[in-house]
């Protein structure tokens, strides 16, 4: 990934005061749902009050306030043109849009990774069923070197018969990091469409569209973008410039800002990815919340957030390794989301109960404890977590 000029900024300090988290809540679960910052909560309350008097929502300008959100997300992922950002309700909506507009034939294949989040799976299952293509699911090996070997297997699965590669940036169960630059290069070599679900990375980890060159990049807002549910942002590259949307929304058509002449129906869409917007995309309640959170994330920068999480957990991970817990090599995992695999003999049910008793929020995924720290976590949170991990092996 390209080095951002923000890398020269001072190191990020704990941002707990920007949130409403109680002191005794040790929240390591942003991969499940991000807490709403205070500023975003205020933006949401203000947005709700506008509906008291509908004349405060003025057409056409307020219906195009969505363009501010496009610009913020475009800046975050270095997408260049904000017009390539679609506003949608979820990852599965963007994946369905992509699947509708990609030609896949019998004899071709679609490549996925093992146990990736289902939002980036089911549309490909349908497309395979309808086209007669084959599905290739790349599984990880067991044991040491898992991340490196999984990445290698992924590259080897992409061949001249591959029509689509649909993968995450960071695996949602254990934080395995996929080298999207290399995967994207391989996709371009064989002419495959490249669809990336970056829900578990964008906001907490740098992402550069110009470097990765995905055809589609999708990120829902309610996790690492610290925004509301039912808002997702998707970049659609040139491959989709003439595509067909899932919905025929009036606001995506040419001249739709001219409310007086909306019944002068237009066959032409607005340029870029606006054609893929969900109906009623100008959500006067949710979009201001999402925009306020994106402004904070841009201020903190994903580079500094990633560095903060790495430093916060460095000593914790060293101690955990000494206690018999294992985790992926640093090169092949993120610092904001990773899985701790248990030593033999640990009772997972008992561990889950102890975590809840100590008010530590984290997710058990299979035999791993998924930890997802963010800028609101501090050493007190880490100390409480380590107490639980020590007790588990006692």
What can you see in these coordinates?
With 394 residues, this protein is of the alpha/beta class. The chain folds into 2 domains: 6-28 and 301-393, Aspartate Aminotransferase, domain 1; 44-299, Aspartate Aminotransferase, domain 2 (3-Layer(aba) Sandwich), CATH 3.40.640. It is 34% helix and 13% strand. It has 11 helices and 12 strands. The strands form 3 sheets. The protein has a 7-stranded mixed β-sheet with strand order 2-8-7-6-5-3-4, sandwiched between helices. The chain has a 3-stranded antiparallel β-sheet with strand order 9-12-11, with no helix packed on it. Strands 1-10 form a two-stranded parallel ribbon. Helix 6 (180-190) links the parallel strand 5 and strand 6 (193-197). Helix 1 (38-50) runs antiparallel to helix 8 (286-300), helix 2 packs parallel to helix 8 and helix 9 packs parallel to helix 11 (379-393). The protein is globular. The two termini are 42 Å apart.
- Which secondary-structure class do the elements indicate? alpha/beta
Overall pLDDT, averaged?
A: 95
Major sheet characteristics: 7 strands, mixed
Report how far the terminal alpha carbons are from each other. Answer: 42 Å
Any idea what the shape is?
A: globular
Tell me roughly what share of residues is in helical segments: 25-40%
């Amino acid at each position: 990934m390209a080095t951002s000029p923000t890398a020269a900024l001072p190191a990020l300090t704990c941002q707990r005061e920007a949130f409403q988290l109680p002191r005794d809540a040790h929240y390591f679960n942003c991969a499940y749902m991000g807490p709403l910052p205070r500023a975003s909560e205020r933006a949401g309350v203000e947005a709700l009050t506008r509906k008291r008097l509908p004349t405060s929502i003025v057409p056409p300008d307020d219906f195009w306030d969505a363009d501010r959100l496009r610009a913020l997300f475009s800046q975050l992922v270095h997408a260049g043109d904000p017009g390539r950002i679609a506003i949608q309700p979820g990852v599965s909506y963007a994946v369905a849009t992509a699947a509708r507009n990609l030609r896949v034939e019998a004899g071709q294949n679609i490549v996925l990774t093992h146990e990736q989040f289902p939002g980036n799976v089911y549309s490909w299952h349908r497309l395979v069923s309808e086209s007669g293509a084959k599905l290739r699911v790349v599984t990880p090996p067991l044991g040491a070197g898992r991340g490196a070997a999984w990445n290698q297997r992924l590259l080897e699965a992409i061949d001249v018969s591959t029509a689509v590669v649909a993968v995450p940036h960071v695996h949602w169960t254990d934080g395995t990091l996929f080298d999207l630059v290399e995967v994207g290069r391989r996709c371009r070599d064989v002419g495959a469409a490249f669809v990336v679900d970056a829900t578990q990375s964008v906001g907490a980890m740098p992402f550069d569209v110009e470097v990765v060159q995905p055809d589609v990049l999708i990120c829902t807002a309610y996790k690492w973008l610290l925004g509301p549910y039912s808002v997702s942002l998707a970049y659609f590259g040139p491959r989709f410039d003439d595509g067909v949307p899932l919905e025929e929304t009036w606001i995506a058509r040419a001249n739709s800002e001219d409310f007086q002449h909306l019944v002068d129906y237009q066959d032409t869409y607005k340029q870029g990815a606006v054609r893929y917007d969900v109906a009623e995309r100008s959500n006067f309640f949710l979009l201001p919340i999402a925009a306020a959170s994106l402004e904070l994330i841009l201020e903190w920068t994903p580079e500094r957030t990633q560095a903060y999480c790495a430093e916060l957990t460095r000593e914790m991970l060293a101690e955990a390794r000494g206690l018999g817990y294992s985790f992926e090599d640093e090169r092949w995992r993120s610092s904001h989301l990773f899985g701790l695999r248990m030593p033999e003999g640990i009772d997972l049910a008992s561990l889950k109960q102890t975590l809840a008793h100590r008010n530590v929020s984290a997710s058990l995924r299979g035999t791993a404890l998924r930890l997802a720290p963010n800028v609101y976590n501090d050493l007190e949170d880490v100390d409480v977590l380590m107490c639980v991990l020590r007790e588990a092996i006692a």
